[in-house]
Specification:
This protein has helices spanning 29-42, 55-68, 84-91, 130-147, and strands spanning 3-9, 45-51, 71-75, 97-101, 123-126. It is α/β, with parallel strands linked by helices and 148 residues long. The chain has one domain (3-147): Rossmann fold (3-Layer(aba) Sandwich), CATH 3.40.50.9100. A 5-stranded parallel beta sheet has the order 2-1-3-4-5, with helices on both faces. α1 runs parallel beside α4 (130-147) and α2 packs parallel to α3 (84-91). It is globular and about 40 Å long.
Length: 148
Amino acid sequence: MPRTVFFLNGPNANLYGLDKSGTYGSESFASIEARCQRHASELGLQLEFRQSNHEGVLVDWIQEARLNADAVIINAAGLTYSSVPILDALLAFDGPIIEAHMSNIWKRESFRHHSYVSKAATGVIAGLGALGYRLALTAVAELLEHKA
């Protein structure tokens, strides 16, 4: 049976690709999702790829993952730097958690240098754009294989 991964994206991730010269590159969110779905399938993973602009929805999905997912990949976006509720929900999840960011958060504004998500994360991938999403899926597949 394939392992299920919840890939959760926070506020404004749905806007990826709309600013071609911006921080997050030119690839649209829909295109990134399609590539992630293909890669997950190649890895034998079932992928739930979701995005919300609302903190409580992300918390609900993390809690849902406790029953329905083997791993979580999360780009909490702006909530990375402020959300204790997301941290608390992630701490209650018993499986690999990869924190993923399109940009290198440590090269940006100083308020982005502290991540609440990192306290719960197994690992962090940042600064590699959409490639980081692919690497996060590969990392989760490897972690789940070694856990089995």
